[in-house]
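Backbone description:
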Amino acid sequence: MTIPIALTIAGSDSSGGAGIQADLKTFAACGVYGASVITALTAQNTRGVTDVHVVPAEFVTAQLDAVFSDLDVRAVKTGMLVRSDIIEAIVAALARWSPPNLVVDPVMIATSGNALLAEQAIATLREKLLPRARLITPNLPEAACLLADAVAGREADIARQGKALRALGCEAVLIKGGHATGADSIDYLFTSGGTERFSAPRIATRNTHGTGCTLASAIAAGLARGLDLSTAVRRAKDYVTAAIAAADRLAVGRGNGPLHHFFGLD
């Protein structure tokens, strides 16, 4: 049996709800083999991040070369990248190995409010990594930060920012609507062919830790399996919606708990 392989490049969440741990759970749930390159270790639980240990860029490179030299990676997803030197190491490895699909989740702030990307690294992310991406998946605050703009409140503003982000060089942009208000959570996919809206009922729960990681990883899993981008986004949106809906069946921690990645096994 040959199984599609996806690689996550991100930070480790010691509580298991986000980061590398959420990515690997998502890959498994979506039927792909998951490999990982760790950029940072976080001391973290459902109530916040208490400490971060950054992995040296040289060791990030060693991990990347070890994986790419042996595994047939069909999609890469990036998350917490921490610093400019780590981003530059990743860009260099992507240039060497040329994986076919790159999904960039421009992680900047944790659900708890802790910073996960150094301010001076934002320009490196924007100028060097985003142009290599098949898809970037910012939420509304991240889209605004990447563009040094106000957070979009209207659909027209989201469309303007989606177009501006595509102009940075990436193939497509998915601006996520989880931080908006209203009965539905709407994500907007901007490609050369136009705009698609992906809508799902907004679910009332505080257990949303790792939602962005999970969505980007589910999209990467779909791309690794050979799905077209629109189908990969739709299936990922459906998966994340179901995982959020099932989250309250878990009782993990005393803060913002995780999604239920394996709801299908209940």
